[in-house]
Amino acid sequence: MSLTDACLAFFKADGWDVATHEDGMLLTRVRGEHLAFHAVVIPDDERERITAYALVPGSVAPAHRLKVLDFATRANSGVAVGNFELDVRTGELRFKVGLDLHDVAPDEALIRNLVYRAVFALDGTWPGIEAMLKHGATVDEALALVGTLQGARDGQTITEA
Amino acid sequence: MSLFDTMERFFDEDAWPYQALPKQWALTTSYQGKSTSFAALARVDEDLQTVTFATLYGRLVHPEARVRVLEFITRANFGLPLGCFTLESDSGEVQFRTSADVDGVNINTALIRNLVYTNCLAMDAYAPGIAMVLSGEATPEQAIAAVEDAQ
Questions:
Q1: Residues B11-41: pLDDT tens digits?
Q2: Domains of chain A
Q3: A105-138 confidence digits (pLDDT tens)
Q4: What number of CA atoms fall less than 13 Å from residue A116's CA on the CB side?
Q5: Which one of B74, B93, B106, B133 makes the best mutation probe of the A interface by having the most chain A beta carbons within 10 Å?
Q6: With CB atoms counted within 10 Å of each terminal CB, which end of chain A scores lower, N or C?
C-alpha cells in the first residue's frame, strides 16, 4: 500500500473529510477546542516519509515575529514529538510532525499519532499564541497558558469538510 | 519487548557503541560526522510511548549570538520535513531532535534506525552553517543558502 493510500485509509476509517490536491497533499479542516484551522498531510512515497502540518490561520505580523519565535523555541524544547516553525519571510506559523517510514509499514496507528500530535499541539497551544498576538502577553505568560503538550492526544477534536 | 529494549537492540545490531543510563530510559552515544563528532542521547518514555533521538551541536551559543542562531535554526526547521533544531534559552545548547509517537504501534528497529540516521545526516549537514553564523562569517540567510547548496 502506498503512503498516500495508507493516509487516505486512516482518514476514512477515522471519519475525516479530506481533499486531495493535484500535488498529492491531503488537506483537511479542523475545528479544535480553541481554534479552527487547516491541517495538511504530505505523504512522500518516493522518499518514504509522511509529514503532517497544523497551520495557524493567517500570518504573524512582522512586529510579533521575534516574540513568536522566542515562544516557539521555548515551546519546542518541551515538546516530545514535533515542533513549531515560523517562516521568517512570510510569518506563516505551523506545527509539524514528520516520520521517515523506510522499511516501516505505514500502519494506521503511526499515521493517527502523526496527525493527532500535530492537530492537538496547535489547538492546545493556541491560547498562548493568541494571548501574545492579540492581548500583548509576554512569552512567559503565553507559555504558562499552554501547560504540557505531552498528553495532547488525549483531548478531543472535530473535523469538518 | 519494551521500547528501551527495541532501541537498545537497534544500537547492538548496528554496532554503535553506547552507554545505557540507569533505570533504562536513555542511552548516550556519538556520531562521527564529516568533520566532527557529535554526542547524542537516545531516550524513551514508556508511559507516553515516545522515542526521541537528539544530537548535540557541541559548542554553546553565547548570548550575543543567540538571535542570529535562532534565526538560522528557524530557517532550517521550516525547510526540513523531518526533525527540528532546538536552542536551549538558558544553556545556549543547540540540538537536533527526531522523535516518534509509537502508541499502539508494533515498533521495530527500522523505525529507530530512521530516527537516528535522519537525525545524524541533518546535524552533519547543518552544523557548518551554525559555525558560520556563530563566527559571524555569514548571516543566517547566507548560511542556510550555503548548507542547502551543498546538499
A1: 999 999 999 998 889 999 999 998 789 999 9
A2: 3-160 (3.30.1460.70)
A3: 999 999 999 999 999 999 999 999 999 999 999 9
A4: 22
A5: B74
A6: C
